[in-house]
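Ticket #4471: structure export looks truncated?
Reporter: QA, pipeline team
Priority: medium

Steps to reproduce: submit the single chain below to the structure queue and open the exported record.
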Amino acid sequence: MSSSENIPKVLEYPILSRYTEILHFTSTRSGGVSTGKYASLNLGKYSGDKNENIQENLSRFCSKIGIETQQVYLPFQTHGNSVLIADEEFLAQSAEKQANLLHHTDALITNIPDVCIAVSTADCVPILLYDPENRVIASIHAGWKGTCSRIAANTVQIMQATFGVNPKNLIAVIGPSISPAMYEVGAELIDTFMDAGFDVDKIFIRINNKIYLNLWKANKDILLENGVDESNIEISGYCTYTGQSIFFSARRLGIKSGRMISGIMLKKN
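Actual output as written to the record:
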């Protein structure tokens, strides 16, 4: 393996790269020490990989992006719509208490510099939000369950209520995840989303007696419904399922496989 393959690869997004006061990223598979279905840069703390491998991978990745591992906060995600604010009170807690608070959490919000809030994914949708006016950030994990329970809406509304965020100022990225062309689902999900008030004709696609779910559009529509301007939303367009050389895909590799992380951090002035 060449030395360049040992260097973690990092994705950034044009719409967020305009803002030099923030760090943002999505990791890829390259540059780690994990093997098998975790090869190679597995950053999923709860993926079943050896802990020493995950720690080494995180150390390498953080070195690449210029932060310390202890600055990264990753929730134990459970496909719900719970949102945690990483405020001064949270940061003052012990590591054990922080871990308890991060359990059953699928989105994080903060306005504190040098706190990198991230989510782990491998087909589910990572969403990053930034309000340049109030300097507030959020990271969201939205699988089909989180999408159906509108975790993105919940996050935006908490940002409004807690930090006075105007949704029109929010910059949003919908990151690498399984594409509409690849995300075949069962017919029962149509009823589930219909019961939740979605316009199912806009987000479900029927082709040759198969049904596909467009999580990108569903989450974009949720953001639009909650006041985010369309011009401020970027869909990365990367498919984790077909991009297996770059991304982990739980549908392709199985649940016991690697995870990428997508995160955002306010830099200190």
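Status: closed, not a bug. The export was complete when the record was re-opened. Leaving a note from the reviewer for reference: The CA atoms of residues 85 and 96 lie 17 Å apart.
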